[in-house]
């Protein structure tokens, strides 16, 4: 079970890179007159989860701005039934076969590790997701702690 937890959390590493790398580009385009600031703001990021070596875990997670935070939705397949840790990692680097190139949990504010509803936590801590008897976990929640446009 521990191995599956690590594989799932490593697979989400690309989320941080996708969500955070698009915001500076959008702001730069707005500053240079290529788009107005409102249109340039990042409103959606998509992370495709790829399995690490020896794993079959895969899926897609979408992050979309909502009035009350960021809506996180998607599906993760290839899991064992039960609960699995769900995290965004520091880097979108999936070059190592074991996923260690993704770094630790995304934590730009230096806060302690915590549950998704904790007042202070890593920005990349999303608690657990639960896979059904077919190994599929459906993800759907709104997170008020994260942003698609950099620090709040």
In a few lines, what is going on in this structure?
With 152 residues, the protein is of the alpha+beta class. The chain contains three helices and six strands.
Description:
By secondary structure, the chain is of the alpha+beta class. The chain is 21% helix and 29% strand. β1 and β2 (58-66) form a beta hairpin. The longest helix has 18 residues, at 14-31.
Keyphrases for this structure?
alpha+beta, 21% helix, disordered N terminus, single chain, four-stranded antiparallel β-sheet, 3 helices, 152 residues, two-stranded antiparallel ribbon
Write the layout of secondary structure elements.
Layout: H1 2-11, H2 14-31, H3 37-40, E1 44-49, E2 58-66, E3 69-77, E4 82-87, E5 125-131, E6 137-143
Antiparallel strand pairs: 1-2, 2-3, 3-6, 4-5
Give the class from helix and strand content and strand pairing. alpha+beta
Unreliable runs: 1-32
Helical percentage: 10-25%
Order of helices and strands: HHHEEEEEE
- Average of the residue pLDDT scores: 78
The total of helices stands at 3
Number of strands: 6
User: How many whole angstroms does the radius of gyration measure?
Assistant: 16 Å
> Percent of residues in beta strands?
25-35%
Shape: globular
Order of the strands making up the biggest sheet: 1-2-3-6
The main β sheet shows up as: 4 strands, antiparallel
């Amino acid at each position: 079970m521990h191995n599956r937890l690590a594989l799932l959390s490593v697979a989400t590493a690309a989320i941080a890179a996708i969500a955070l790398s698009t915001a500076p580009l959008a702001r730069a385009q707005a500053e240079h007159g290529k788009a107005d600031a409102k249109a340039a703001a990042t409103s959606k990021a998509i992370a495709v989860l790829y399995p690490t070596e020896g794993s079959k875990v895969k899926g897609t997670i979408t992050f979309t701005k909502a009035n009350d935070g960021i809506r996180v939705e998607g599906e993760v397949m290839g899991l064992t039934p039960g609960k699995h840790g769900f995290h965004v990692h520091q880097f979108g680097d999936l070059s190592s076969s074991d996923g260690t190139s993704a770094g630790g949990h995304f934590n730009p504010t230096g806060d302690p590790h915590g549950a998704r509803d904790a007042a202070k936590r890593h920005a990349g801590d999303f608690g657990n997701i639960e896979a059904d008897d077919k190994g599929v976990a459906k993800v759907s929640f709104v997170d008020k702690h994260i942003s698609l446009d950099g620090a709040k």
